Amino acid sequence: MTIKPLVILPDPVLRQVSKPVERVDGALGKLADDMLETMYDAPGIGLAAIQVGEPLRMLVIDLSREDEPAAPQVFINPEIVEKGAAASVYEEGCLSIPDYYAEVERPATVRVRYLDRDGKLREVAAEGLLATCLQHEMDHLDGVLFIDHISKLKRDMVVKKFKKLARDRQPPRRMVG
Ligand code: GNR
Ligand code: NI
Question: How far is Cα 139 from Cα 131, in angstroms, rounded to an integer?
């Protein structure tokens, strides 16, 4: 298994709309395992394929606590088939926007249809952190980030800060020498 580099804001890759997975095969399983290893290393509780640069509609989640056995879950071509009426607010973060957290309101419950890593069609009625995390990850599949759900003022501040960080990390060649 391989830990892959994470794609970080403002990389335009994060705005791509990911393509449906066409076959659930060994190569896809390898990508799922690499995503899980990358997520555990970060550490995070979820990861979408686009965050490691693969524009495929697949995400991984593990909500187990540190003192529990690992509980990796793979969701392929997930679709929300029902949203509950009630909303919930959760302080979200994103591995592609390191060290920034903000409250996001989303439906408290969602029913999600997906393929598991064996290609079997499944459905889950999600609530609590699973509902929040699934919606956060499924947003990534459509190029949507959690900062798109906060005020434009806050979003613009975050994007500006990460643009500056990226500039400082990677000086333009014309400044070299
Ligand atoms: O690790 C993560 N934690 C988290 C916390 C609250 C709401 C969503 C998340 S997902 C995030 C990992 C990530 O960026 N997934 O795309
Ligand atoms: Ni994220």
Answer: 12
**In-domain check, residue 6:** no
User: Which ligand is nearest the CA of 92, by number?
Assistant: 1
Residue carrying structure tokens 């889950």: 124
Which atom number of ligand 1 is nearest to the Cα of residue 43?
A: 1
- How remote is the CA of residue 45 from the centroid of ligand 1, in Å? 6
Domain with 37 in it: 12-169
Mean pLDDT of 61-73: 96
pTM of this prediction exceeds 0.85: yes
Nearest to 91 by CA among 80, 106, 101, 81: 101
92 with 132: CB under 8 angstroms?
yes
Catalytic residue at 137? yes
The domain total for the chain is 1
Element (H, E) at 54: none
Question: Residues 77, 59: contact at Cβ < 8 Å?
Answer: no
pLDDT at 134 over 80: yes
